[in-house]
Amino acid sequence: MLLGAGYLLSQRSSAPQTKGGKGGRGAGGGAIPVAVTPVKQGDIGVYVNALGTVTPVYTATITSRIAGELMEVHYREGQMVHKGDLLAVIDPRPYQATYTQAEGQLERDQALLNNALIDLARYKSAYEEHAIPEQQLATQKASVNQDQGTVKLDEGNLDAAKVNLEYSRITAPINGRVGLRQVDPGNIVQANGTQPLLTITQLQPITVIFTMAEDYISEVAPQMRAGHKLRVDALDHDNQTELAQGTLLTIDNQIDTTTGTVKVRATFPNRNYELFPNEFVNARLLVKTLNNVNLIPTAAIQRNNDIAFVYVVNPDRTVQSRNINIATTDGNTAAVTGVNPGETLVTDGFDKLQDGTKVTIRKPTAPAPAPPNSQRKETASQAQGAQQQSAAPNPGRSK
Questions:
Q1: pLDDT tier for residue 6 given thresholds of 50, 70 and 90
Q2: Rounded-to-integer distance, Cα 135 and Cα 116, Å
């Protein structure tokens, strides 16, 4: 009898177990809780995403064009300056003296030229009366030409001295922001030296250079030729916060054969100085907009090798897998084909899902409210007290 009972018990334990009672997996109280979302219809942009570098339109490296002592500095580090503003003064006294000398030399030679012209007029009258030979008149004409050449030379020297004197006052060639001062007052600077006095970078507007795959040229170039302004967004390192909005300015004239990409430049007004020269940003170029397409969250998309699919929740609360084609993605949203607006898709709880699995829809959990400031302070003080208590020496342990 005992042997027969043991045999029956072993036969019962080895019999196949059916999951879900009535044959459907997860049925009869075993339904799998999942999070769902409906398929929506709307518009989505097709973007080119790339790492970009903020580049000023103009950068001016200021050096002295004359040698001398740096006497005055009329700017502050980081100051915004305008074209023509006085930045620094090189000792002008040697160049003022040279200018005065050139000016006096010109006046003296102009007087000699005027005297030679008067003599030439007299010689012409005397020659007409046959009072002097023709050779004497020709000699006087040559003397006048010589004095005229001397005056032109003096005028050139005076202009050169004037230019050098003006170079003693260094002004801003562009609008922009002044960098750190490289040379302090009292130092002797060299003419066209290798060490600049300062650097000015234009911040408004400013540009961003990034690369674009050559496949997009056929879509972007015709729009630019037609005069369309393509939007470009500059985002932070996390690709979450938008720093500035701009427009595509130009495309480079050749493709890099090693990478199959082309450089493009976008311009930004930079009104609030959101972008900084040589800063790395995430650039996003809007190539086109897809209208009235099916939009689903990317969390609903599952992949099997090269096939993308989703789980559709049927009216009887069972799921069915369906293959989809992804047109484009933008952040957490994707435009797809293969589903219809209004259908419900699973977005979480895929672990045990199969075709025909019974599911229950999980309600979204609301975020816990933040405690009031008084409770925050009390909790913080309690934590601090506990930390101090744990850090205090234990006399029992010291023994």
A1: very low
A2: 16
Specify the CATH class of 93-167 in words: mainly alpha
204-286: CATH, from 2.40.30.170, 2.60.40.10, 3.40.50.880, 3.40.50.720: 2.40.30.170
Nearest by Cα to 64 from 94, 87, 82, 97: 87
Secondary structure class of 150 (helix, strand, coil): helix
Domain ranges of the chain: 21-39+301-361, 58-91+171-201, 93-167, 204-286
159: pLDDT strictly greater than 50: yes
> Which pLDDT score, from 0 to 100, does residue 127 have?
87
Write down the CATH number for the domain with range 58-91+171-201.
Answer: 2.40.50.100
Please state which CATH number belongs to domain 21-39+301-361.
2.40.420.20
User: Quick one: how many helices (H) and strands (E) in the chain?
Assistant: 6, 21
Quote the pLDDT of residue 374.
46
Q: What is the DSSP letter of 371?
A: P
Whether residue 233 contacts residue 331, with contact meaning beta carbons closer than 8 Å, is answered with no
DSSP 256: B
Q: What is the largest CA-CA distance in the chain?
A: 171
Instruction: Quote the pLDDT of residue 17.
Output: 37
Q: With residue 81 as reference, give the H or E element that holds it.
A: strand 80-81
Determine the Cα–Cα distance for residues 326 and 307; give it in Å rounded to an integer: 10
DSSP string covering 270-296: -TT--S-TT-EEEEEEEEEEEEEEEEE
Lowest average pLDDT, out of 89-103, 112-126, 310-324, 350-364, goes to 350-364
- pLDDT value at 289 more than 50: yes
pLDDT of residue 346 exceeding 70: yes
More confident residue, 328 or 10: 328
* Burial grade of 89 (CB within 10 A; 0-12, 13-18, 19 or more): middle
